[in-house]
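pasting for the record
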Amino acid sequence: MTIAMALFTRDLRVRDNPVLTAAHKAKGAVAPVFVLDQAILASSYLTPNKAAFLSSALRELDDELRRIGGRLILRRGQLVTEVVRLVRELSVTDVHIAADVSAYSQRREQRLSGALQKQGCRLTVHAASVTASDPGAIAPAGSDHFAVFTPYYRRWGRTAGRKVLTGPRLLTVPDTHSEALPDAGQLCAGQPSPQLAVGGERTARRLLQSWLAGPVDRYDSCHDDLAADATSRLSPYLHFGCLSSSEVVQRTGRATAGREAFVRQLAWRDFHHQVLAARPDASQTDYRARYDDWRREPRLLEIWRQGRTGYPIVDAGMRQLAAEGWMHNRARLITASFLAKTMYVDWRQGADHFMSLLVDGDIANNQLNWQWVAGTGTDTRPHRVLNPQRQAERYDPAGDYVRRWIRELSHIEGAKVHTPWELESSPAGYPSRVVDHLEGARQFKAARSGGH
């Protein structure tokens, strides 16, 4: 009996999984494998929040595999070494893995391909598993990627996605040793955010079903309303592959303005992946060089991290991030703009902090969204600066979002909560403004206009 390996990475699901489906189609046994990669366990990528989400996602993946007669084979160590060991133990003929775009993923794929070739084992890399569209499939004439979103989206919208896969109904899994499923604390030291979401395919599908039952149709008019919390909350499940982007796009459709607006956001995710696939250095270097002489003041960065800038809308976003390991997209834009443009602190430092807490933080979306906000990325208006007070008035007009996250201001009624510096007495325990926004914005624009 032949054995094919489905090597899970960022595709922790049974349904609509090209990797698992391809391994099953070989008509033999399937070895569903996840390796707790020592390189990732030892890196800064695996944070307490991601470890907690991963732990629950692996348990749900194992449960789903057992429902169809299988189980998850878990190994710990250097990924290539562990895969080769299993290939030898089980006489595996084919290994299937999802394509990804990070520099680490590319190196992993190259090393794995070389090692398996020596074993006489084939490696098949499946595109459009992590994203809805293969990052290399859509490109303009004369370039390997789109640098502006709008023309990319027009092409993306006309490109037929792959067929959504139902997944195998029954698996035969070979008998071999598997490590015990890990608790979060066995993966990473430190406590996760207290209100962190729970990972897993079943959880993700319930959330998707609820979202598509109605809220998505109001997305176009409500998604920027900070207090309403009218977004899908699906981003962590897409990041870990508990849901596939292809299925979400196709099940959502574009029948209403809300659905069209939501699908457009999923296209942004693919857009950033295709940029990073073409420019892997953009994870750490400016996509468009601005030659910024960033402020080197650790005090400013720490004040921003702690949510104590004195600007309530900024601080509310940062405190939501600490509490949930997640932040509303509008709040991400506001807080990032404040750090990179009002405070003029290097976007990479902000991106690192987001990655340390965001459960949905991946290299493509986190780094390139930060570059977009900082004006070093693909934004066609790179020098605009978001005014936090105006953003608050527009997207949290009654102040409910701020009161939810800033206890020191919870007693202040209405929109006055956004301007505590105008009150007769300063709210106890809440700091004064760390910088003057208008002056900070002026200095940023002056720096950017200095011949660059």
